[in-house]
Write a structure and sequence with these properties.
By secondary structure, this protein is α/β, with parallel strands linked by helices. It has one domain: Alpha/Beta hydrolase fold, catalytic domain (Rossmann fold, 3-Layer(aba) Sandwich). It is 47% helix and 17% strand. It is built from 12 helices and 8 strands. The protein has an 8-stranded mixed sheet with strand order 1-2-4-3-5-6-7-8, sandwiched between helices. One of its GO terms (molecular function) is hydrolase activity. This is Alpha/beta hydrolase.
Length: 270
């Protein structure tokens, strides 16, 4: 698996598709890893796009940075990956925390964005209650590990009905959560608690955006996606039926369809 080193931290990623294709970076959420995007990476590469799916620092097979990792650090890691590969601009997308990292990337590196893909995410800054919750959860994960937490949230990560209806998907999502290093998860939670408000930068965006959300997402409901679309001058909203917070794995064919339609229209390759 490809790897590169940034500030002494080894970061790993997958790189699929033709080297001269339009580059697409897909950023996983918490507490997952790059395999969340396996179905999308395969479909996009087959369509002629170059797809980069990194393991964020602290997740998957990348090194852990303990303590606190701000979303700005994650965004700069994505910029570092593009630098490593000699890529000037890319479509940058993510789900949940990954979507917020994509928004942070747009805030910090707007000239490197070709288009945005924002899945099941929200733009406002963290609330005081949210800060308290994330910092307490960080302490809990460090104390007891990921197992109980994963069991508690699986029917929120996926639509409740999909936990039983899609057992292989549920097993994959549980597995990603269970193997995440608690130190990495805690550091990201602490950093995410400090995230800024992205609404002004999204309102000023000059790139196209695809906003996707599962119809039964309980973490970031359809109303959050609608708010982003109202802010962004060149954006489209697609709601995925039969899905919760992770439509890319719950309904991959539907998700891939809207993603490919958007890319062919706004970012054609070849």
């Amino acid at each position: 698996m490809p790897r590169f080193t940034l500030d002494g931290t080894v970061l790993r990623y997958d790189d699929l598709g033709p080297a001269d294709g339009v580059a697409i970076v897909l950023i996983h959420g918490h507490p997952f890893n790059r395999t969340l995007w396996a179905t999308q990476a395969e479909a996009l590469a087959a369509a002629g796009y170059r797809v980069l799916t990194p393991d964020l620092r602290g997740y998957g097979e990348s090194d852990v940075t303990p303590g606190q990792v701000l979303l700005s650090r994650f965004a700069d890691d994505i910029a570092g990956l593009l630098d490593e590969l000699g890529i000037d601009t890319a479509v940058v997308g993510g789900v949940s925390m990954g979507g917020q990292i994509a928004m942070e990337f747009h805030l910090r590196h707007p000239d490197r964005i070709h288009a945005l893909v924002l899945s099941d995410t929200s733009a406002p800054a963290e609330t005081p209650e949210g800060k308290l919750y994330r910092n307490r959860l960080a302490l809990r994960l460090l104390a007891e590990g990921m197992g109980r937490y994963a069991d508690e949230v699986i029917d929120k990560m996926l639509a409740r009905y999909n936990v039983a209806a899609l057992p292989e998907v549920a097993a994959h999502v549980l597995g990603m959560m269970q193997v995440t290093d608690p130190r990495g998860a805690a550091a990201a939670l602490r950093g995410r608690a400090e995230r800024p408000d992205y609404r002004d930068s999204l309102a000023a965006a000059r790139v196209p955006a695809l906003v996707v959300v599962g119809v039964d997402d309980v973490y970031t409901p359809v109303s959050d996606a609608e708010e982003i679309v109202k802010l962004m001058p060149d954006s489209v909203l697609r709601v995925i039926d039969g899905a919760g917070h992770l439509p890319s794995v719950e309904q991959p064919q539907a998700f891939n369809g809207v993603l490919l339609d958007f890319l062919r229209d706004r970012c054609p390759t070849g």
